[in-house]
User: Which sequence fits this backbone?
């Protein structure tokens, strides 16, 4: 619905708190790494959108330092990936809602992490691949797009062409 696409048009990777870990060439078996490699090297996608969202339970659990979302240890370990975003977000007592800042900082962190993958960085340098950050509030239906500095609200009508423009023209 958000991207106004048909089934199969998007190659989607979903995970808790929409995180891309930094590249670690240590032989670790990682689903996000495999999906990224396939999307960029085989499908040759032109655009990668890191799409975060408001009221993220994973990010809230990390920020509040409370009990983990599940009895196991996987979510807690996974969420520790956002430690660099905590620095980006600034202190909890700063301006605006802290969880919103942290959710948005985690998107910026994932964009930075994407560039740690050598083949992603190379494709971006060659303008064959473009990275985008977006933040969606399910409750209000509002979408914000990262403009390189902050997140700016996207106009509501018409959703598809506005977003297409913000992503730039699709080439062949
Ligand atoms: Zn979430």
Assistant:
């Amino acid at each position: 619905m958000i991207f106004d696409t048909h089934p199969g048009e998007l190659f989607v990777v979903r995970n808790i708190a929409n995180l891309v870990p930094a590249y670690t060439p240590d032989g670790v078996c990682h689903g996000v790494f495999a999906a990224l490699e396939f999307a960029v090297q085989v499908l040759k996608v032109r655009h990668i959108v890191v799409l975060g969202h408001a009221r993220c339970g994973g990010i809230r659990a990390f920020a509040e330092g409370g009990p983990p979302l599940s009895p196991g240890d996987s979510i807690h370990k996974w969420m520790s990936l956002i430690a660099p975003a905590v620095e980006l977000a600034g202190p909890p007592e700063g301006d605006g809602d802290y969880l919103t800042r942290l959710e948005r900082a985690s998107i910026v962190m994932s964009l930075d992490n994407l560039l740690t993958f050598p083949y992603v960085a190379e494709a971006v340098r060659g303008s064959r691949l473009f990275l985008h950050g977006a933040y969606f509030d399910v409750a209000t239906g509002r979408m914000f797009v990262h403009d390189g500095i902050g997140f700016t609200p996207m106009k509501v009508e018409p959703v598809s062409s506005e977003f297409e423009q913000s992503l730039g023209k699709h080439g062949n």
